[in-house]
Sequence to fold (362 residues):
Amino acid sequence: MRWFAILGVAVLPLLAACEEEQAAPELPVRAIKTFVVSERAGEQSRRIAGLTEASVVTDLAFESSGRMIVIDVDIGDAIEKDQVIAKLDPEPFDLRISTSRGQLVDAQAKLADAEAKFAQQKELYEQGFATKTAYDTAIANKNSAESNVQIAQSQLRLAERDLERTVLTSPFAGQVSEKYVERFTEITAGQKIVQVSANGETKVKANVPEGMVQRLEPGQTVTVSFPTLNDAEVAGHITQIGARATSTNSFTVTVVLDANDLPLRSGLTAEVVFAFETAATGKAFLIPLGALLPTTEEGKGFIFVFDKAASVVHRRAVHVLNVSGNDLEVTGEIAEGDILASAGISFLVDGMNVKLLQTAAE
Fold:
């Protein structure tokens, strides 16, 4: 009995050790979702809201004051070149022409009298029967009469011109975009009557942030889309870049649209897509957001590259240069063809055994 007791004491620890080994199961190999590095970063793009305008927009006004008795257009009307827009009451202008004509006739009569007296004084002076003073006075009177005739002629031409300008016409074909006055309004010279926008080229003006405007230049190609026209897109090019910032620290950039057949109107909402190169263009690689393990240092992080031969992942350091949609543009310890873990990377460590959740396309 004594030997059996001793044997039991010796065997019990061994049995317990075997039970512990059986109770500690082997850790499973983690399966990872992967992404193959292939695409390099291209140009960066930004969408900026803008508004359409006609390339030529002008306010029409009368050159003379008067009472407007006709205005034949309204906002939105299509107009042709030389189409009548508005008219002033012509009666006051007709009266000025009659007055100017009377003044011209009077001046011409006085000139004829002055020329006759000059001829008489000249003959008497040459014969010695008139003084030099009388002769000089006759010359001065004739010159003054000639000037008065010229003034009267100019006033008549101005009066006739004013009458012609009582009819306001469009200098080009287009549309009426604004109407400032109504019929029977007393108009002053230069007062705006309507605003017209020319047919043809359309431009878009957008306010670009100061940090981006330095990357743009005249002639650069852009894409313009119109949300209210089913996001239709039209190519365009930059023609002007504002030299002075607005109150919002942005610069007005003007884009002229290339030929298009869209039903565009002034004031239509547009989105201008500006594309430009960055430090990442052609150098950095695009990786999904889930493939980066960020660090406390801004712009830095780690990726995990799958080693097919050893079925392990290796941690590598990268630097984030930019964000492009749902991708990151990174440089560092990364190369084309690398197979990256693209999900659950917070559970990975350097040298960890893993298996592929799905076959990575190479």
In short: Residues 91-164 form a domain with the Helix Hairpins fold (CATH 1.10.287). The longest strand covers residues 312-324. The radius of gyration is 45 Å. The chain has four helices and 23 strands.
